[in-house]
Amino acid sequence: MSNYEYEDDDDDYTNDTSNDLVKQLRKAAKQKDKELQELRSQFETLTKGQRERAIKDTLAARGVNQKIASFIPQDIDPSEESVSKWLTENADVFGIDLEQNQATANVDPADAAAYKRLSAASNAGISPERGQDIMSRLMNANSKEELDSIIAESGM
User: Fold this and answer.
1) Virtual CA dihedral for 65, 71, 72, 75, nearest 10 degrees?
2) Among residues of the chain, what percentage have pLDDT more than 70?
3) Over the Cα atoms of the chain, what is R_g?
């Protein structure tokens, strides 16, 4: 009875710790699976957002309404070449004239005309510094000849 009783006690002790170790390993495995699932979810979200942004940027560069991005199939690579190829193939479906869109780039004709008028006015006008300089030179002129030369230089 002396030797066998101690061996039974040792077996019970090792069984308890091995069960505890298995429980800890299962818990750790569940934790890792949960973290892996979260990372996969984040990756899918980021990948989807990056794909949408790349497609919308390509459509904007081509001068096409970005709402068309929702019609581009998921199996199309989001690279500029692939999206442009798909857009060229399906332009007639959406009623898009790609040559016209490249040339105009979505500029309103009224805005373009206003920009031209502003550019012409700013190029022909006199800057405030130059105007003040001319005024101070006119006020400090000492003779009629000097006054005439200042007027001739200013273009008045």
Assistant:
1) 160
2) 74
3) 39
Name residues of the chain where pLDDT drops below 50: 12, 102-104
User: Which pLDDT score, from 0 to 100, does residue 3 have?
Assistant: 55
Q: Which pLDDT belongs to residue 146?
A: 87
Tell me which DSSP letter residue 143 carries: S
Please identify which residue in the block is written with the tokens 């004709």.
109
- CA 115, CA 121: separation in Å to the nearest integer? 10
Full DSSP string of 33-90: HHHHHHHHHHHHHHHHHHHHHHHHHHHHHTT--GGGGGGS-TTS--SHHHHHHHHHHH
Pairwise CA distance, residues 56 & 6, whole Å: 75
Separation CA 108–CA 59 (nearest Å): 18
